[in-house]
Amino acid sequence: MVRTVLTFTDRGIYCPAGDFHIDPWRPVPRALITHGHSDHARPGMGEYLATHQALPVIRHRLGSIHAKGIGYGEPRQIGGAVVSFHPAGHVPGSAQIRVEVAGEVWVVSGDYKTEGDGLAEAFEPVTCHTFISECTFGLPVFHWEPQPLVMTRIADWWQANATAGKVSILGAYSFGKAQRLLSGLPEVGPILTHGAVEEMTEILRGQGYRLPSTTRATPDITSKTHPGALIIAPPSALGSSWANRLGPAEEAFVSGWMALRGIRRRRALGTGFVLSDHADWAGLNAAIKTTGAERVFVTHGYTAIFRNWLQTQGYDAGIVETRFTGDDADDTDEVVG
After folding, report:
1. What domains can be seen in the chain, in order of their start residue?
2. pLDDT averaged over every residue in the chain
């Protein structure tokens, strides 16, 4: 008989044995948080529990909260449940949450990617009976190229713009993707950051994550003061008055969604680079297989298609309706200096 360790409620994923929720989207007394993106870490909870690495970003975004940290792999008894947090590879500090009740183990993936990026803690497979997996990119069309190849393409684009006397503005989400680019790009010229990106970068740098020196793009900075520069900014800054003040520039957007030409056209972007902080089709399938789970619930993404595929592969698969938004949806930063 399969024990129901977690249930699905209008407030989020709930553990009756421990009386806690995981990444709830409505206020609850106790919340276990997988990572600091705003669709998973929301305000209004009585207590928060997240990895030590995730907490600084969560505190920065949510303000004064009652929160505690936990180490990766550290078991903690909460009521009748034993929980532990394990690296998800999504962004720095991100975790999958393992919940065990009376020998039955369920794992909530949060958001994850299986390719190491040199910055976030690398994804760690966790054996379980039931796996709750995101499937943001749960279609075979989504196949990521290796990170070094994508970084080289971005650097070549940057170099070509610098040669043409233009700065390069790269749209990337302020927490996670922006720092991944900073960590992985070769040095072509000066690197500037939008204020929202710089704030997150300073937080991570203060935690010991290795990130290169950057300069905040203040109003007095233009293509004349910093010729050939790369400016990393939230996607909301692309095409804005903030971007226009920089002078002659080329813009591009970095996202897994750039694999779909229709989305690139709708954003009116001539250049898009495919780089995601989520697993692609192959990564999703590989991750699920390594868990050894017999039952899989999928959430946020191509849920019906991916659920049906998993059923053909012999899994007992279902869909969980959540309010998570998937890849790079954390574009909540205001376009300010």
Report:
1. 7-141+277-319 (3.60.15.10), 147-273 (3.40.50.10710)
2. 93
